[in-house]
Amino acid sequence: MEQEMEKGGVLLTRLVPPEQWAVYDPVFAEGARRGISFVIGGGLAVSVYSGHPRNTKDLDLFVRQEQSGALLDMLRGLGFDEYTELPYDRTWSYRAFRQGAIVDVLWKTLNGKSAVDEQWLTEGWEVTVRGTRVRLIPLEELIVSKLYILKPDRTDWPDILNLLYTRVNGLRWSRLLEMLGDDRLLLGGVMSVFRWLCPGRAALVPAHLWEQLGLPPPHFGPPADQDKIALLAAGQWFCGAES
User: Which of 36, 90, 100, 173 has a CA between 20 and 30 Å from the CA of residue 70?
Assistant: First the structure.
C-alpha cells in the first residue's frame, strides 16, 4: 500500500503542471496552518486510485460543512475569486479560481444526499506532491460521489469502471453498501456493466455482494474483454487492460 501511495504521488507530480501546482500548494499550506481539514476528490483522486491519469484542470476539495465557511474565507484571502461564468448549486458547493486554476469546494455529493463526515477526511490515501503531503477522499466515498452523475450530457460511470477494474480487491463493500442504502440498485447498474466488460476482474467480487445487488455472479472470462470494450469505443478506460 505504501508503495502504491508513493506511485500515486509521483503520478500527480507529473500530471499537475508546476505552474498549476503553484496556485494549489498555498491552499494546502494555509489550510494546515489554520487547522482546516479537507481532502482531494474528483479526477485527480480517480487518477491516483485507478492509475489512469487525467488532469481535469481543477481541484476538487471535500470539507465538512461546518468548516466550509472557513475554507472559503481562506481562499478569498489567498486571492481566489468566485467563478461565475457558469451556474452551479451553491447549497453544496463553491467554485473559486485564480490565475486560470479552478478550485471546487464541496461539502455534500452532487445531489445533496451524502454529507462529508470525518471518515471522508481521515481514511483516504496520503500522497506527496512536489513536497506537499495531501490526503485523498476514500475510495468508497469517491465512488459514491460519482455514482449519481448520470446526465444527458455527462456521466461519471467510466471513472467508476476504472476504479473497479484497478481496486476491486481493496474495496470495503460493506461501507459502500451502507452509504448507498436503498440506492444500492444504482450500484448494481454499474456492476452489471463491469461484469459484462471485465468478467475476470468482476469474478474477484465476493459472491455475497452479487446476491445483495440481485445479480448473478460472473462467469469466468478475461480481465477485460477487448471485443466488448471496442463496442463502446472504451479502449481508453482501462489502464493496462489485457484480454
Answer: 100
One digit per residue, pLDDT tens: the chain, 243 residues? 888 989 888 989 999 999 999 999 999 999 999 999 999 999 999 999 998 887 677 899 999 999 999 999 999 999 999 988 877 778 889 999 999 899 999 999 877 778 999 999 999 999 999 999 999 999 999 999 999 998 888 899 999 999 999 999 999 999 999 999 999 999 999 999 999 999 999 999 999 999 999 999 888 788 988 888 888 876 566 765 544
Distance of CA 211 to the CA centre of its chain: 26
DSSP string, 194-213: HHHH-HHHHTTS-HHHHHHT
- For the CA atoms of 205, 110, 43, 242, the dihedral, rounded to the nearest 10 degrees, stands at 30
Q: What is the pTM of this model?
A: 0.92
Q: Which residues contact 63 (CB under 8 A, 6 or more apart)?
A: 36, 37, 38, 71, 105, 106, 107, 116, 121
For residue 112, the 8-state DSSP code is S
SS3 60: strand
